[in-house]
Amino acid sequence: MSMFKIFNVSGSAVSAQTQRLNVVASNLANADTVAGPDRQAYKARQVVFSTTPMGDVGTAGVNVSQITEDNAPGRRVHDPKHPQADAEGYVTYSNVNAVEEMVNMISASRSYQNNIEVMNTAKTLLSKTLQMGQSG
């Protein structure tokens, strides 16, 4: 594999992790929202990754193949005085688990950082190789 392909592979991973971070941010922003007038609460979303060929045989990157919704029921809290309470006095909140989302955020952030480090290391190696060619 060419050293230049490393940038394509790591770049695809950085792009995918950026999308994952955006989904996590959306989930966290909606963690405490309640069902609207349609009685449908926000549903947590998850990113699904897949490999994608990057030209040469055996060279693959990553992309986001889809973003799925978690169909688990929302959290129901008995609060009859709440304006969004149903006939039984329950308010339905989103099914976002803030702890899981924080773990996803840390994981995506670390993956992003690692791929940036791979690109920086490849850049340094290419630069050193060019320097060796100039001194000879």
TrEMBL record:
NCBIfam families: FlgC. Its main location: other. The basal body constitutes a major portion of the flagellar organelle and consists of four rings (L,P,S, and M) mounted on a central rod. The rod consists of about 26 subunits of FlgG in the distal portion, and FlgB, FlgC and FlgF are thought to build up the proximal portion of the rod with about 6 subunits each. Pfam families: Flg_bb_rod, Flg_bbr_C. InterPro entries: Flag_bb_rod_N, Flagellar_basal_body_rod_CS, Flg_bb/hook_C_dom, FlgC. Belongs to the flagella basal body rod proteins family. It comes from the Bacteria. It is found in: Bacterial flagellum basal body. Residues 7-34 form the Flagellar basal body rod protein N-terminal domain. Residues 88-132 form the Flagellar basal-body/hook protein C-terminal domain. This is Flagellar basal-body rod protein FlgC.
